[in-house]
Amino acid sequence: MLHYCHYLEKKSVAYLADALIQHYTAHPDYTEIVVVCIGTNRYTGDSLGPIVGSQLLEKLKGQRRVHIYGTLENPVHALNLQKTLSLISQKHGRAYVIAVDACLGQFYKIGTLQVVEEPLQPGVSLDKQLPPIGHIHIKGIINNYGPLNHKVLEHTSLTFVQEMAGVIARILERVAQAIVPQLADEQALPRDSNSQATR
Prior knowledge:
The protein has 199 residues and is α/β, with parallel strands linked by helices.
């Protein structure tokens, strides 16, 4: 199922957060939350995920049942995605995984945030074959899809991406606040997960 809203709409945070919370509630057998923010700090258009990750790391500091992978300092991208997924599988075997990524779309959809109730297929806009990730994902349409997608990613407004990332971070902060009290018995967590949110 697809839920979408323009990031500037007043209802965007509440509406999309509620969609994520309802999806979790239908699958409540998890002990922690993992947010994987896909992207790179090399192109402004592809920095949406890492910016979200960095903001979330600050917002959820001290929340040891939420783990963040993919920040501006330590991005998760095509070259290390498989390694990151293996690490998550080993350390967070019973985690509810939310993926975040930028994407390209039709011109009139630029600025739209989408919550999609299925795994993320990263790299589709650039014709990359990467493994799927997440139980659910959030995408932000940052620019127009076309024949020169690499150039589009390079020339996307950083201010626009930062504003959209701020909204996504607020959505996920709200989701974490709602879901954490509902997580399964913490005794089921691995011994090494007593740390703060990790990158």
